[in-house]
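User: For my dataset I need records formatted as: sequence, then C-alpha cells, nothing else. Please produce one.
Assistant:
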Amino acid sequence: MTTSAENYYHAVNALLARIASTQQGSIIEAAEAMADSIRRDKIVYLLGSGHSLAIAMEGYYRAGGLAPVDVIHDTTFGRAERIEGYAETVLKSYNISSGSVVIIVSNSGRNAMPVETALWCNERGIKTIAITSLAHSKSVSSRHSGGKRLFEIADIVIDNCGVPGDAILEIEGLPGRACPTSGLAGMFIVESMVAQTIEILIKSGETPPVFISANLDGSDEHNDRLLLKYANRVRGI
C-alpha cells in the first residue's frame, strides 16, 4: 500500500508530464514573445496574487534566471483580488510600456485582479501570457463585471492542467481533497518558458541576460553588469 506522500509524488509526476506533452506549443509561443521583448530592451513582468505570488517570484532575480524580469506585487496577498479597480491602482505604479510582456498567474482566472490586468494590458499594446487552470476556470463564472475569465482575454494561454479546486489528493478520513498542484505546475511552466527563451536568444546570435549564482566564485562581476543595466527599471535590484 502506498503512502499519501507517494500518491502525491505520482500525481505530480503525471501532471508535469501532461503539461510537457500538451502545452509545448503555448510555452514556445510565450518564449518567443519574451525573447522579442528582451531584444527590444523591454521588461518581462509577472503578476500573481495570493499564493500565485510564489510562482511570479520564481522568475525574479535568481540564479539561472533572466535579468529583465520584474514582479507586479500585490501587497494585499490576494485579499483585494476581487475588488474591481484595484489592478489599475497597482499597475499604474509600474512603468509598463508597449512591447513589454506581462505574465499573469491565476489558477481560477475568475477574479477581478487578473482579469483587469489582462484588459489593461490589451488596451496598451502589452502582450499577456496567462498561466491558469482551464478545467477550473471553465467550471466557474467570472467575478468581474465584464463577465470574462482570464483565459478568454490573454493573448497566450498556458494550462497548468490542474483540477477544479486545485487540491488533488484524496486521503481516507479527510472530507474533500488536500495538496494543491498549481504552485509546482506554475513554477515548472515559468522555468520552461525561461529555458525556451534562452534557447531562442542563443539561436539568434544573442547573449541571454542570465544571472549566475552569487554563491559561485567569479559571479559578482557578471551579475553586477546586469544589475547596472536594469537597476532603474526592475524594482529591488
